[in-house]
Specification:
By secondary structure, this protein is of the alpha/beta class. It is built from 14 helices and 17 strands. The strands form 3 sheets. Strands 3-2-1-4-5-6 form a 6-stranded parallel β-sheet, with helices on both faces. A 6-stranded mixed β-sheet has the order 8-10-9-7-11-12. Strand 4, helix 4 and strand 5 form a beta-alpha-beta unit. It binds L-homoserine.
């Protein structure tokens, strides 16, 4: 390691994920420094061609077509291997290990084929080899399997492991769109592998399933020995027929273990998945992984499985872990949160939302009007109103929902309602949860 106050990161492969990693390392440099006590500096990147137009621009003298020169550069402390493919990536990774440099990768094909050799080489060299971004893009599945769910054995792990094919199937299903037109959009969004057949023929998902099977069961399954099917034979007609059967067709990876004989089966294929499963309702570029553990029961993780930012997020999470490992900072040693900006509590007037209100009122003329007026005085606007009698006690229930307002206004409105002539007891209030309030 060079200067102890900085760690210089070399990025092998400046495609979708490489550019995203550079961008986020630069944008949040101060934050990483607060967490790690060292500055992470993206320093050099390798490309196949220098003159290609790229969305993330960096000084031209930091770009090279010679990946080897970055691995060998004594100023580079850590490497991100994001070139994909197998032979060159393997050679560069092993060389980095031999120079005492840790490597973070998103290369599922490489780990699937040579994981055992690479893990052993990293261990022998005393360096880290981290691969969170290799499975399910932005979903932290590797960490969850290895750390959070370590108390479990897994009879079943299954789910959607390829964002491109899920994106294509979802748009075919929702819009009746053709396979080819949606594939064009997926390319534009940076979801698709350089070798598109990997996505469309199920091989990319199979690479990921093999990695998960290893992490869950310690068994390397050979791709040649398992069922791997893609999405090319799925038609709009099949998708519609599946819906009528209460299912969706999803490309899923399935890893089952029979604990009577410890046999593990791995496969990737399109299947009709019942709508009751979260995996069936996981659409678009999202991946979803359902893990059934012997201790925890079933845990389902969903999130963006491809694309620049989610995948770069996983690369950076690995970089931070590796630097913590190098610096001897234990993951749990910092209980006190370090934030990029100081946060303050929100005021009631800033906390917006819609509300449900139930009031007991005397069932007499003008009562509803008084309630509406009271709410209007506090600038709470009504969305819906319904009233029904409460049996024989001359009382009625009024159920109201409001348009968007805030905690301050609704609290004042409730106070006034409680004091209103004709209102009996305390109004019942529930918040109407909206995960995307900005749509309002
Ligand atoms: N092409 C891959 C996918 C990228 O669509 O899932 C993420 O591994």
């Amino acid at each position: 390691m060079n200067d102890t106050s900085t760690i210089k990161v070399g990025i092998l492969g400046f495609g979708t994920v490489g550019q995203g990693t550079w961008k986020h390392l630069e944008e949040n440099a101060d934050f990483w420094e607060k967490i790690l006590g060292v500055r992470l500096i993206p320093s050099r990147a390798s490309v196949r061609t220098l003159d290609k137009e790229r969305k993330v621009r960096i000084p031209s003298d930091l770009l090279t077509t010679d990946s080897q020169s970055i691995v060998d550069d004594p100023d580079i402390d850590l490497l991100c291997e994001l070139i994909g493919g197998i032979e060159e990536a393997k050679r560069l990774t092993l060389q980095a290990f031999s120079l005492g440099k840790s490597v973070v990768t998103a290369n599922k094909a490489l780990i699937c084929e040579h994981g055992e050799e690479l893990f052993q080489a990293a261990e022998a060299a005393g360096v880290h080899y981290a691969f969170e971004a290799s499975v399910a893009g932005g979903i932290p599945i590797i960490k969850v399997l290895r750390e959070s769910l370590v108390a479990n054995e897994f009879p079943l792990i299954y789910g959607i492991l390829n964002g491109t094919s899920n994106y294509i199937l979802t748009r075919m299903e929702n819009e009746g769109a053709s396979f080819d037109s949606v594939l064009d959009d997926a390319r534009e969004l940076g979801y698709v592998e350089a070798d598109e057949a990997l996505d469309l023929d199920g091989v990319d998902a199979a690479h990921k399933a093999v990695i998960l099977a290893y992490l869950a069961h310690g068994l390397w399954v050979d791709l040649k020995d398992i069922t791997v099917e893609g999405i090319s034979k799925i038609s709009n007609e099949d998708l519609n027929a599946a819906l009528k059967l209460g299912c969706k067709i999803k490309l899923i990876g399935v890893i089952r273990r029979n604990f009577d004989n410890n046999h593990v089966s791995v496969g990737v294929y399109p299947a009709l998945v019942p709508m009751a499963e979260i995996i069936a309702r996981t659409d678009g570029v999202y991946n979803g992984i359902s893990l059934t553990g012997s201790v925890v029961g079933t845990v389902v993780l969903t999130g963006r499985g491809a694309g620049q930012d989610p995948t770069a997020g996983s690369v950076i999470s690995d970089l931070v872990d590796v630097v913590k490992g190098i610096k001897g900072i234990s993951a749990s040693s910092k209980l006190v949160h370090v934030s990029p900006n100081q946060c303050l509590p929100a005021q009631a007037i800033e906390i917006e939302g819609c509300y449900y209100l139930r009031l007991s009122v005397y069932d007499k003329p003008g009562q509803l009007a008084k309630v509406a007026e009271c709410l209007a005085d506090h600038e709470v606007s009504l969305a819906t109103v319904s009233q029904s009698p409460q049996g024989e006690n001359e009382l009625a229930s009024i159920i109201l929902t409001t348009h968007q307002t805030n905690e301050h206004s609704i609290a004042r409105a409730i106070e006034s309602l409680e004091g209103l002539d004709g209102v009996r007891g305390k109004p019942v209030l529930f918040r109407m949860f909206d995960p995307n309030p900005e749509k309002e």
